[in-house]
Design goal:
The protein is an alpha/beta fold and 424 residues long. It has 13 helices and 18 strands. A 12-stranded mixed β-sheet has the order 4-3-5-16-15-6-7-14-10-13-12-11, with helices on both faces. Helix 1 packs across helix 10, helix 1 packs across helix 11 and helix 6 crosses helix 7. It binds NADPH dihydro-nicotinamide-adenine-dinucleotide phosphate, 2-oxoglutaric acid and magnesium ion (MG). Homodimer.
Length: 424
């Protein structure tokens, strides 16, 4: 494909995919083209560090036989400059579709008015229905809790539905008024307190959307030998959306994984076909879950939840293991994957070479694992743990540690590289 502003690297080749059932099997050449979006705000600080560290790790792990051919694609502020005010160029979407594996920095979304989230748009346009966010403690990382080592959870956040579908109308608009009138006249709704001045949002949650997400969570628990999958929901209040999510989850476990009632139900238990061990499928109401993860984190491993709960839970859990400076993630469909940090553009730090590149870097390790380049991924994790162990850390960790040396984002990357080179 010929692009307007994207330069395709001459030395690289495309990753391709085949499907074994619903399981994607990637064919990764030695020099894959990986599209990346630099990101707004602190994107300019963290993305170059991520690329540099990944390049060194790949070179070191494979003795120069493998190499990533980075291809910059554009979204957000940089796109608007380049494409004459277009924030979300269609060729960016096409490039990611064609190359299957990409990584991105954060993108700004205005609050209240303005355009809708580009991050959410990417997920929806490419049907990246799983937002997978692992949360675990890395040795030496400062934490506000006593036992951060007890936190080892992987959040599966539904990424395509819920109130993130963006179906909402402003208070006082013609559409909101019409919808309120329809609800009152046709559906007998009497509970809208100020009908003429109410914004209205719709929360779509489907059986198919819920089941495909919960299926992925269960398969992950099987693959990684994890003891439980917890469905987190607010189904006592939102019965036909959040409550249905839970019910469809139990139904799926029975239909597809031969689940049996656990201690009389509603929890169920399935057998892990790989190990013969039990996996408990359970549910917890979202507000209670926020205290459970603080007080009894070791009771939870895989979490399956809807979009908004997953958004809240991922930042809250990240805090327990050191903050959103070290919180990676992936957005996945059955063939395409975009890796990105949990955090946003942190505008007050933009361009200061100050913030922690750790979240994006760990997202890159998830990307390398996804590509089957686990040796390079492991090197980065080792390098990062060593840099943290030496207390050469960015401001977010330095302010929680005694006698740490606060270093800029770029220097933190160099410390990781030095540490990786000593591993060899
Ligand atoms: N996927 C995406 O691209 C996302 C985009 N966003 C967007 O980002 C913008 C800003 O959102 P905001 O609510 O401020 O949330 P942010 O996640 O951008 O920042 C909130 C705070 O988190 C800490 N933080 C964030 N990133 C890092 C890092 N790399 N290293 C260390 N600390 C970090 C900082 O804390 P402190 O002040 O304590 O130093 C920062 O002030 C919004 O437009 C939002 O929509 C938000 C989330 C995800
Ligand atoms: O799209 C945004 O601006 C925010 C998204 C977000 O907070 C997230 O995905 O965790
Ligand atoms: Mg968020």
């Amino acid at each position: 494909m010929v692009y307007q502003h994207i330069s395709v690297p001459s030395e690289g080749a495309k990753i391709t995919v085949q499907h074994n059932g619903s399981r994607p099997i990637l064919d990764v050449p030695d020099c894959p083209i990986i599209p990346f979006i630099e990101g707004d705000g602190i994107g300019v600080d963290i993305t170059p560090v991520m690329r540099k560290v990944v390049d060194v790790a790949v070179k070191q792990a494979y003795g120069g036989k493998r190499k990533i051919a980075w291809m910059e694609v554009f979204c957000g502020e940089k796109a608007a400059q380049l494409y004459d005010g277009e924030w979300f160029p269609s060729e960016t979407l096409e490039a990611i579709k064609e190359h299957l594996v990409a990584i991105k920095g954060p993108l700004t979304t205005p609050v209240g008015g303005g355009f809708r989230s580009l991050n959410v748009a990417l997920r929806q346009e490419l049907d990246l229905y799983v937002c997978q966010r692992p949360v675990r403690w890395f040795h030496g990382v400062p934490s506000p809790v006593k036992h951060p080592e007890n936190v080892n959870m992987v959040i599966f956040r539904e990424n395509s539905e819920d109130i993130y579908a963006g179906i909402e109308w402003k208070a006082g608009s013609e559409e909101a008024r019409k919808l309120v009138q329809f609800m009152q006249k046709e559906l007998g709704v009497t509970k809208i307190r100020w009908p003429d001045a109410t914004g209205v949002g719709i929360k779509p949650v489907s059986e198919e959307g819920s089941k495909r997400l919960i299926r992925k969570a269960i398969l992950y628990a099987i693959e990684h030998n994890m003891p439980s999958v917890t469905m987190v929901h607010k189904g006592n209040i939102m019965k036909f959306t959040e409550g249905a999510f839970r019910d469809w989850g139990y139904e799926l476990a029975q239909q597809e994984f031969d689940a049996q009632l656990y201690e009389g139900g509603p929890w169920v238990v399935i057998k892990n076909p790989k190990t013969g061990g039990d996996i408990i499928i359970k549910d917890v109401i979202a507000d209670a879950m926020l205290q459970q993860v603080l007080l009894r984190p070791s009771d939870y491993s895989v979490i399956a939840t809807l979009n908004l709960n997953g958004d809240y839970l991922s930042d809250a859990l990240a805090a327990q293991v050191g903050g959103i400076g070290i919180a990676p993630g992936a957005n996945l469909s059955d063939s395409i994957a975009i890796f990105e940090a949990t955090h946003g553009t942190a505008p007050k730090y933009a361009g200061q070479d100050k913030v922690n590149p750790g979240s994006l870097l760990l997202s890159a390790t998830m990307m390398l694992d996804h590509m089957g380049w686990g040796e390079a991924s492991e090197l980065i994790v080792q390098g990062m743990e060593a840099a943290i162990g030496r207390k050469t850390v960015t401001y977010d960790f330095a302010r929680l540690m005694n006698a740490a040396e606060e270093v800029p984002s770029s220097r933190f990357g160099e410390c990781i590289i030095q540490a990786m080179q000593q591993v060899a």
